[in-house]
Amino acid sequence: MDQAVDISGVTLVREGVRVFDGFSLRLSERRIAIVGRNGSGKTTLLRLIAGLAEPKAGRVTVNGVDVLRDRAGALNTVGILFQNPDHQIIFPTVIEEIAFGLEQQGRSRTEARALAAEALASAGRTDWAERLCHTLSQGQRQLVCLIAILAMRPDWVLFDEPFASLDLPATLAIERRIAALEPHVITVTHDPARVAGYDRAIWIEAGRIAADGPPAEVLPAYAAEMQRLAGLEC
């Protein structure tokens, strides 16, 4: 099976603003970084890939699955970790939160809870099963969301600013877990240093690709431009 994200001629309008206009992109590398300023379209791009945003025109497929129209196929193919775990967690306890996605894949409640328990054990967090999610720190809630995604065994995992609002220990812990993942990874971040070792970097500016290539080339160019803009705003 061809492991690739294909975005073909996508036009997307959000709240009267044209975010993408005939945008096309193909992604197949194991580790892909996306950088850009706020409002550039980075998060919207991830939502398109996850099938959570509907374009006005064009098509998005992940490993051949039309993620917008085939929701069951999308659940088996791509998972997304939002910037704020509180926008993602909907159940009181950790075990319920992890089991939910597995039930959405068609598993029985009993099987889903058993698989959720296995996922927690694999992450070394068996003692979290009956913990109330709101009692966990932000970094811990972020980890719960990641465990829930990985339990569904997607081919692609999307991260929207996974290091935002985390202290250094939590940031390093999430960074290590991302580095060890088997699925393809796409990470949106404002911190180029966290993705310097990736296979490919894409700089998005106003819904267009400003640069695309090796991180060693794209990230310094992006950082230099951000420094230039910061100087103009001072």
UniProtKB/TrEMBL annotation:
One Pfam family in the UniProt entry: ABC_tran
Cross-referenced InterPro entries: AAA+_ATPase (IPR003593), ABC_transporter-like_ATP-bd (IPR003439), ABC_transporter-like_CS (IPR017871), ABC_transpr_CbiO/EcfA_su (IPR015856), ECF_ABC_transporter_ATP-bd (IPR050095), P-loop_NTPase (IPR027417)
Sequence ranges assigned to domain ABC transporter in this UniProt record: 5-231
Keywords, in A-Z order: ATP-binding, Nucleotide-binding, Transport
PROSITE patterns for this protein: ABC_TRANSPORTER_1 (PS00211), ABC_TRANSPORTER_2 (PS50893)
SMART domains membership: AAA (SM00382)
Record carries keyword ATP-binding: yes
Gene3D superfamilies found in the cross-reference section: P-loop containing nucleotide triphosphate hydrolases
The keyword Nucleotide-binding is assigned to this record: yes
A single MF term (Gene Ontology): ATP hydrolysis activity
GO CC terms in record: ATP-binding cassette (ABC) transporter complex
Family recorded in the similarity comment: Belongs to the ABC transporter superfamily.
PANTHER family: ENERGY-COUPLING FACTOR TRANSPORTER ATP-BINDING PROTEIN ECFA1 (PTHR43553:SF24), HEAVY METAL TRANSPORTER (PTHR43553)
Protein name: Cobalt ABC transporter
Source organism of the structure: Paenirhodobacter enshiensis
